Amino acid sequence: MNFNTSNSYQQVVDRVRAAAPAHSIIDTLGNLEVGNASYPLLKITFGTRGGKTVLISAGIHGDEPAGVEAVCTFLESRLYEPYLGEWEFHVIPCINPTGFEAGTRENHAGEDLNRAFQWEHPPLEVACVKSVFANGPFDLDLELHEDVDSVGYYLYQKDQDNFVSDLGRKILDAVELVMPLDENEEIEESPADRGLLARLKGPEEMDFWPMAIYAYVQGCRHMFTMETSGRFPLKQRIEAHLTGIEVALREFSRVSR
Ligand SMILES: [Zn+2]
């Protein structure tokens, strides 16, 4: 993969700390110790207590930097502002700092963190992410990914069974103005409809649990795993992610809880 491999997690931490909105709570979910290095796994919480809750996360795969960059830009450009009165934001800017620095999908121990949510003894990074679900499910779970092989943007949509929504389609319609969609009828072995992967396996059918399935099992209402295509320049991928976040928040704001 040709993504920039000179990423510094410390720079991400510095950017996030500098950009965190007033009255944010900045939690260190855990400290990842690797050799002489220590990586604090940060979560930022802000917005309206008791409002709709959204978890925005990125960088669980270290070689997918646009998500991490998008989260930093989301904070720095205060794109959350129109939603502060209605939403409580929970943001994990980079779940896999060692992979982010090395430019690898896996962490320093060679583990694909997005396959480890059902493990009895998951890696520390995963245990940290799981801990944020302890206070109850989120209304919306937005997970930012990239796919170096895809021809365009696509997303996985997972809902609780009793919840029907065209939110995924709305996100895709908006992102398409920024980046072409992956129009293949099958993506990553799932049936796809112009970039929408909504007919997904349930947890009982899966050999492993990614984060979105863990969120689903925890009772989160609506999960999106959003994938930009690595074929496009970083700036365009960041823009695609920011568009996806914005449309998800805007459209979900109209939905009653
Ligand atoms: Zn990924």
From TrEMBL:
Has UniProt tagged this entry with the keyword Phosphoprotein? no
The family annotation for this protein states: Belongs to the peptidase M14 family.
- Which PROSITE patterns has this protein been placed in? PEPTIDASE_M14
Q: Which GO terms describe its biological process?
A: proteolysis
Alphabetical UniProt keywords: Hydrolase, Metal-binding, Zinc
Can you tell me which residues form the catalytic site? E227 (proton donor/acceptor)
- Quick check: keyword Zinc in the entry? yes
Write down what this protein is called.
Answer: Peptidase M14 domain-containing protein
PANTHER family reported for this sequence:
BLL3975 PROTEIN
The terms under GO molecular function for this entry are: hydrolase activity, acting on ester bonds; metallocarboxypeptidase activity; zinc ion binding
The record places domain Peptidase M14 at 5-252
Q: Per its UniProt record, what Pfam families does this chain match? A: AstE_AspA_cat
- Source organism per entry reads Nitrospina gracilis (strain 3/211)
Q: What's the domain of life for this entry?
A: Bacteria
Cofactors: Zn(2+)
User: InterPro entries, alphabetically?
Assistant: AstE_AspA_cat, N-alpha-Ac-DABA_deacetylase, Peptidase_M14
